[in-house]
Design brief:
Layout lengths: L1 H5 L8 E2 L2 E5 L6 H7 L7 E2 L1 H13 L3 E9 L2 E8 L2 E8 L6 H10 L10 H17 L6 E9 L3 E9 L5 E8 L6 H5 L11 H4 L6 H16 L7 E9 L5 E9 L5 E9 L5 H6 L11 H17 L6 E9 L4 E9 L5 E8 L6 H5 L12 H12 L4 E7 L9 E10 L3 E10 L3 E10 L8 E9 L2 E10 L8 E11 L11 E14 L4 E15 L6 H9 L10 E16 L10 E12 L6 E14 L3 E14 L21 E2 L18 E11 L10 E13 L11 E12 L2 E12 L6 E2 L1 E5 L4
């Protein structure tokens, strides 16, 4: 329209341009206008060039109107500039962050100092309305005001009346006869207002959530045999005041079907018996889409283990509606067998490639093996160096029998330089200074140099571990330490004090994919101090080993040589945030000559993780300990087992369960039994961040002395909630425990927490 209106303005005969003049510009440089003109001084100018010039200047978006005039062979370009945006304000907005809104507007071109465009403003207004609708605020109104300012500028103001959130008042399922309507609605994410919906906002209508809920409803029926189930219609209505929403779902349940048979056809490269072994849908069973999907997936994965990365497995039903029976023919198309051309590792800016590649079980140039690739991902994740490990297997362009394996990792901070103070419910004030690196220079080696001091202990320690001392995975490590320990300062433990200096050497050897055995040798020199308040057992130990006084109140120094051996199996899917798998560990140590001590000590731990759905997990943990002296000697009292507190039985004070002296202080014991059941669920609002974990737990445990009989009736029980966070400064643990079974002499501590690691 502008071109047609401007046509009479440039009805002229071609002429030679003597000069070019631009009028009407305020902010735009004249050179910018000249750059869009298809003519220069001295050129012959005609009507076609004039039309082209107008189109080019309009296309810049800088001008509301453009005209071209001719005065005595002088080309005059008349422009009317669009105003610039001086400021953008929001009034009445509480649901969204104003800075975030300005950032989103900037991405579409509406921002301060930019050219004002009414079309962009209208689009921004509609998008803001859509955002309010997605939040359930259907009565929200938006009034946009554009105020002209001096120097050809404008101010844009979004005045919003957010109104009240529309709540879902009722969800009805019409046609449900086989199952109770409340049971079906329990599968829905959308719900009517409840005590937690203020946070989850599941009482606010969302088309996406409703679609997911309808699919869950469909799956619920199909997994229980209702093959003819159908969702006939869905109505969503809102009251005139736009405050209440009613949802009605009309369904037809149909009849339940029974499976009469499953047969396989196609290119069966494996024995049919093996396919049948992977089948979870059996003749005579009620039809279940879930089990049918599990069957096809299991067959696809099995073929993937043989190198058929693009296997296609489909189940075709044969339905007898009269008899309510269904049989399935599973078509197997393995496709071409493929091999891995190249394995690419990305995202490891600090960690060396070899650290990742030595964990891989899929080799380049070998046949594709889905199980080996999944195993590789798990092993890399268990290193603890990465927050995320993702694997993709794209086909190689131009080929039909090759794939690449692309492993992408997201590194996490594995080093820690800490100078500061912490606090725990058991250790009180904890002062620490440490330098630790679990991935030293990206080599995968671990080293820690630290000082840790609290009211009960002081530790100077230096340790180093090379997990791949040999290419076969043999690990080598060593430790140097100096520890001062006085538990009576913090715990309700019988008073004594130890000062230990020692060095140890560790060797680990893998005997399987998940199994390792380890050996160790430690030389230790410990000075023990007993007091007048110390139990007779402690004083007797001091006398037996040459106490500085005849009454057992004083000092004694004991040298020891301890040999250790252990076995561990770890099939957990993640070192930091496990959800499934098993961890087992047996560790034994024995004090041998030429040291003075004579004792043996054995520990066993079994931990099993069960995934429940996509975001939940159940952990069962059991620990048992046993110690015994030999050669006429007793187990040193400072080597006893203790129970209670974070890490064993929460809700009871740290290390207080078991035998006690006459003052009511814990003595520890030579036998220990601990059991934990913990249900983990995601932190509300944390999204996909796995570093936050909340759990509900039940703990049980106790320790027994040398002269006591082990009785399960002595076990103490507690339950409660716990929170853990792998924070940048170290792990944080909190627990709120309530003892279920306790004794009158037990020390109760319901709230317990620990900030940072304790050496």
């Amino acid at each position: 329209m502008a071109l047609f209106a401007a046509a009479p303005a440039f009805a002229f005969d071609p002429f030679v341009v003597k000069d070019i003049r631009v009028e009407g510009i305020q902010r735009t440089e004249a050179g910018t206008v000249f750059s869009y003109l298809p003519v220069k001084v001295g050129d012959t100018f005609n009507e076609a060039q004039a039309a082209e010039a107008i189109r080019a200047l309009f296309a810049t978006g800088f001008f509301r109107d453009v005209k071209i005039e001719v005065e005595n062979q002088v080309l005059v370009v008349l422009v009317d500039e669009r105003p610039a945006i001086a400021q953008i304000d929001f009034v009445g907005i509480k649901e969204f962050d104003k800075d975030a809104l300005k950032k989103s507007l900037r991405e579409v071109g509406l921002a301060e100092s930019r050219i004002f465009d009414r079309a962009l403003l209208d689009r921004a207004e509609q998008e803001l309305k859509r955002q309010y609708l997605s939040r359930g605020k259907y009565s929200a109104t938006i009034t946009t005001t554009v105020t002209p300012l001096e120097r050809n500028r404008v101010s844009i103001n979004f005045n919003v009346d957010e109104g009240d959130v529309a709540r879902i008042r009722q969800i009805s399922i019409v046609g449900a006869k086989v199952f109770d309507e409340d049971d079906l609605l329990a599968r829905f994410q959308l719900t009517t207002p409840g005590w937690l919906t203020w946070y989850t906002k599941n009482d606010q209508y969302s088309r996406q959530k409703l679609s997911a809920d309808l699919e869950n409803l469909r799956s619920y029926y199909l997994d229980r045999g209702y093959l003819d189930f159908n969702i006939d219609s869905t109505q969503v209505s809102i009251t005139p005041d736009k405050k209440d929403i009613y949802i009605t779902v009309n369904i037809t349940e149909g009849e339940r079907y029974t499976v009469t048979g499953v047969r396989f056809t196609g290119d069966l490269i494996l024995p049919e018996s093996e396919y049948l072994g992977l089948t979870t849908v059996k003749p005579g069973d009620t039809f279940s889409r879930e089990r049918l999907t599990e069957t096809t997936k299991a067959i696809t994965d099995r073929l993937g283990n043989e190198g058929y990365a693009f296997a296609n497995v489909n189940a075709a039903p044969e339905v007898d509606k009269d008899k309510r029976e269904v049989s399935f023919t599973v078509f197997v198309d393995p496709g071409r067998r493929v091999y891995v051309r190249r394995i690419n590792v990305g995202g490891n800016t600090k960690t060396r490639d070899e650290v990742v590649r030595r964990e891989l079980r899929q080799m380049e140039g070998a046949w594709y093996d889905a199980a080996a690739i999944n195993r590789s991902r798990t092993r890399v994740d268990r290193l603890g160096f990465f927050d995320e490990v993702n694997v993709e297997t794209p086909p190689v362009p131009g080929t039909t029998d090759q794939v690449d394996v692309n492993m992408t990792v997201k590194e996490r901070a594995t080093g820690n330089l800490m100078l500061g103070a912490g606090f725990s419910s058991s250790e009180k004030v904890v002062l620490s200074a440490s330098i630790s690196q679990q991935n030293l220079f990206g080599s995968g080696n671990a080293m820690t140099l630290g000082l840790n001091t609290s009211s009960s202990s002081r530790t100077y320690a230096l340790s180093f571990t090379n997990p791949y001392y040999t290419v076969d995975g043999v690990s080598l490590g060593w430790d140097l330490y100096h520890r001062t320990y006085d538990p009576s300062e913090s715990y309700s433990v019988s008073p004594y004090k130890t000062v230990s200096t020692g060095a140890g050497l560790r060797l680990g050897y893998p005997i399987g994919e998940d199994d390792n055995i380890n050996f160790g040798l430690t030389v230790d020199r410990t000075k023990i101090t007993t007091y007048e308040e110390s139990p007779e057992q402690y004083k007797g130990f001091c006398i037996d080993y040459g106490c500085s006084s005849d009454d057992g109140i004083g000092n004694v120094t004991v040298n020891s040589l301890t040999a250790s051996a252990g076995w561990a199996r770890d099939s957990r899917d993640s070192y930091l945030y496990p959800r499934q798998g098993v961890y087992q560990r047996i560790h034994g140590e024995v004090a041998v000559p030429p040291g003075k001590l004579r004792y043996t000590k054995l520990n066993y731990q079994y931990q099993h993780w069960f995934p429940l759905g996509r975001d939940y997990a159940l952990m069962l943990n059991g620990e048992a300990g046993w110690a015994k002296g030999y050669g006429g000697k007793e187990v040193p009292f400072y080597k006893n087992f203790y129970a209670g507190g974070i890490g064993s039985v929460r809700g009871f004070e740290q290390s207080t369960l078991g035998p006690k002296d006459s003052e009511g202080d814990a003595l520890g014991g030579t036998r220990k039994l601990i059991g934990n059941a913990e249900f983990f669920f995601p932190m509300p609002g944390a999204g996909t961040d796995r570093s936050f974990r909340i759990s509900a737990f039940v703990d049980a445990g106790y320790v027994w002395g040398e002269d006591q009989k082990l009785k399960f009736g002595d076990l103490r029980y507690s339950t409660g909630l716990a929170f853990a966070w792998s924070s940048p400064i170290g792990p944080l643990k909190f627990s709120l425990g309530m003892p279920i079974k306790k004794d009158s002499g037990d020390d109760i501590q319901r709230f317990q927490f620990q900030l940072g690691s304790i050496f």
